[in-house]
Amino acid sequence: MSAFDQLMAHQHQTEALAQVAGRLGWDQETIMPRGAAAQRAEEIGALESVLHARRTDPRVGDWLAAIDDVALDAVGRAKMRHIRRSYARATKIPEALATEIAKTTSRAQGIWAEARAADDVAHFLPVLEKVVALKRQEAAALAAGGDLYDALLEDYEPGTTSAQISAMFDRMRPRLVMLRERVMASGKTAPRVTGHFDSDAQMTLAHEVAERFGYDWRHGRLDKSVHPFSSGSGTDVRITTRVDEKDPFNCLYSTIHEVGHATYEQQIAPEYALTPLGAGVSMGVHESQSRIYENQIARGQAFTSWLFGRMRDVFGDAGAADADAFYRAVNRVHSGYIRTEADEVHYNLHVMLRYDLERALISGDLAVADLETAWNDRFHHDFGVVVDKPSNGVLQDVHWSVGLFGYFPTYTLGNVYAGCLNLAMRAAVPGLDDQLARGDTSGAMAWLRENLQRHGGLYQPREVIERACGFDPNEAPLLDYLDAKFGTLYDL
Fold first, then answer.
1. How many percent of the chain have pLDDT more than 70?
2. What are the beta bridge partners of residue 119?
3. Mean pLDDT of all residues in 439-443
4. pLDDT tens string 56-76
5. Contact by Cβ (8 Å): 278, 268
6. Which candidate in 15, 48, 138, 258 is catalytic?
7. Are 60 and 7 in contact (CB under 8 A)?
8. Is residue 151 part of a domain?
9. CA-to-CA dists, residue 20 to 47, 48, 274, 430, angstroms
């Protein structure tokens, strides 16, 4: 075999083993016995050791040196781009460190879940301190004297720096704050959906809604977890949600969000499976799919009119007088505690808070022991609300427990990309709202599949958005969309 063929065969097995590691993580957060946590940490650590050895195998370096990228086609060159980047990063991290991070974050996830359930920050902080110390070591190895946070951000949004993210946030914050203040000062209140919504009935409707958005049940499943997530790629892509019998939106919109992630993975060209191109190209692009599904499509007036009808069919009393009241309830603006339940006006302010805090943790400017106080002070400043309990504050997100430092800004980047995609999609799909009002998302799904999802990792993150939209991605379409939508809802 040629060097390229040998490298691809090696990579195929590495990708397959990475999927096994992901499945262990899914199991841990869904159905694993609580008493298995310590053993699972050892299992995940052992598998990470194997994966690290494969990713840093000296033969990979030899194969890379022997391959002339210019002689390859576009697909081959894209595969090489990903492998060269992965090899350069992996060889900077000692195997012992990679294994210890995997074991520690596996344990930390279980401790976080216990602490969240008990509202006991003190139970979580010692293991979080260890996670932060390990991630700082990893960042130092990767940064080679550069910015530590940028080194971690590169894992989730290649080619993007914290300076670029900070500049984007600086441009967005004034318009978001102004819109929030105008809404709050409008004197107009949105209705709230109230009542009892049976857990099993919510899950049944969540299954139906997932299918409406193109989720392929032959290659997926829906389970419950403390924090909703999507896992896997190719022919095995699983999602989770959570249920609150007083709040059906928690289940339904968490499901739609995760379906956005999952269908992206399911719709990637089959020939890319178990290759470097067989997964979403970045978390920002990934979040663009979950957020456009959840917000521009599923929170739009057309789709909510269909969902209102199904809510009445399933629950009898949908908790709202009519479809218009239901639409306004779905999009009610309020200073809530929880990021995943936040309205579109507040959501990015939640992300900015986490971004600033995690950068301070990684830089060493914020001690883990002071994190809860810093969170509560910042939340009160930004949202005007005092945090009532840790599960509504610093313990609400799973990300830091599993070491995902650098992930949070990709949520807002995904919103920005979604704003661009929505603008282009509506120009390209005539009669889209008429379709959505019938619960028919096929026009939107087909456009997203053809213009973005099928490409997987073929293009660079910003490149795939630009190709889909026809213009350089920027925050203006998102901010214009928010001003128009909530200006109408609140008579601004």
1. 100
2. none
3. 98
4. 999 999 999 999 999 999 999
5. yes
6. 258
7. yes
8. no
9. 9, 11, 12, 42
Tell me, yes or no, whether 76 and 207 share the same domain. no
Spell out the alpha helix ranges (H) of 144-247: 148-153, 162-184, 199-212
Q: Does the pLDDT at position 318 exceed 80?
A: no
Do 105 and 204 sit in the same domain of this protein?
A: no
Contact call for residues 415 and 348 (beta carbons, < 8 A): yes
Query: What is the Cα–Cα distance from 454 to 209, expressed in whole angstroms?
Result: 22
Query: What domain count does the chain have?
Result: 2
Query: Would 261 be classed as within a structural domain?
Result: yes
Mean pLDDT of 76-85: 98
Amino acid at 154: E
Give residue for tokens 């709040």: 247
Distance (Å, whole) CA 278 – CA 249: 32
Same domain (yes/no): 324, 445: yes
- Asked if 131 and 108 touch (Cβ cutoff 8 Å), the reply is yes
258 is catalytic: yes
Alpha-carbon distance of 276 to 326, in angstroms, equals 43
Instruction: With CA atoms as reference, report the closest residue to 281 among 460, 413, 74.
Output: 460
Order across the sheet with 230-233: list the strands: 222-224, 236-241, 230-233
